[in-house]
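ok here's the first one, seq then struct tokens
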Amino acid sequence: MQISPSILSADFANLQAELDAIRSADWAHIDVMDNHFVPNLTIGPLVCEALRKHGITAPLDVHLMVKPVDRIVPDFAKAGATYISFHPEASEHVDRTIELIREHGCKPGLVLNPATPLSCLDHTLKKLDLVLLMSVNPGFGGQKFIPNVLDKVRSVRKLIDASGRQIRLEIDGGVKVDNIAEIARAGADMFVAGSAIFGAKDYKATISAMREQIVAAK
């Protein structure tokens, strides 16, 4: 079970201190938005590269909310991404994009929005290292968790277990201390948290509280 703070919610005027404060986390999540595929504009490969130069050695979990997606994949791979996830709606050829990510030395993930059908996994799951389920509609941080996504988590957990492969099941959107246990029980094993961590007074204490809730859910 891994916790991945989303730096989208960090204070970018004080980013170095913000990064130092989340070093107890397992991963770092990078939300990339293009103001085209989603209604917001965020960060690019230079920020990913800066995290590595700052000494962040944890896996960098890059979530691409851009269209078209293939053009930007090599840039994030070069910048130090570990996982690169994308939305099937943003790719003309989903299988090709998966292979492109792997060819550039990263682990591919597919992102499903709340209304995206699970049929997108029918011919892709065996090639993935991560499935990211959005529990909000992408574009902005600080949104409320959509409870219906828990059924989707349970369904994808069954698919992953049946595949026999080590595929991460990640949840992103509205994850907080008071609901992370329920999400873990549904079958997620990676948890993206933005405002719940960066909006807290003590980041480390919040991450620890999340871990305690996950352990209690087992």
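and now the second one, same deal
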Amino acid sequence: MTGSTGGIGRATAALLAAEGARVITCGRGGAPGVGEARHVSADLAQPGEPERVVAEAGALAVLVNNVGYAEQRDFLTVTDKQWEEVWQLNVMSYVRSIRAAVPGMRDRGGGAIVNVSSTAGKRPSTGMPDYSVTKAAVLSLSRLVADLYAGDGVRCNAIAPGPTATEAWLGDGGLADQQAKRSGKSRTEVLEAVGRGRPLGRLAEPEEMAAVIAFLCSDRASYVTGAA
């Protein structure tokens, strides 16, 4: 599982481990300590690193792509370099890990892939232009892989979380602080407004996203593929 040292990824790794899965975590930092069988440190934005992680993990029944980066930015000032950096992490790390994992899944008769996209991939967030476009690409990639390998028993689905109570939003200098700085509102006002904009009136909890991912990884979702 990529991007599993914090937030949604850490919560998912903990849940899968608690349900008896042999979980391999991955991230730039150290092991999350949630019952994982092994942790592999890697910068998945770098070519070759997703392939190395998959190789070190061994035969995979499930691949969860969760790594990603978001920052509040203005469309007209996002540089080509910033676009490329976000593309490499948010999209190409998924492409590379899937490309490395699918042959083994086909050989073993099937597998499940879950890609973490975002509501911004369905309706772009004007304050996160590069993030929104890359998350839309993740949705397209997920449907493509589902169509390509359904006949091999490989299922591929995506989830599209909205704002979630993780460090990405709540941490110092995170999205709440960035949005407050851009809008002139307080951090509290920003978080209250973001919560009111959700149908349930609050940010999601990472464990709620983890529950959906765990379902899509499981045999209970054996007839679900190509969904977001």
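notes on #2: Strands lie at 24-27, 38-41, 62-65, 111-116, 154-159. Helices lie at 7-18, 49-57, 80-107, 129-149, 167-170, 175-183, 187-196, 206-217.
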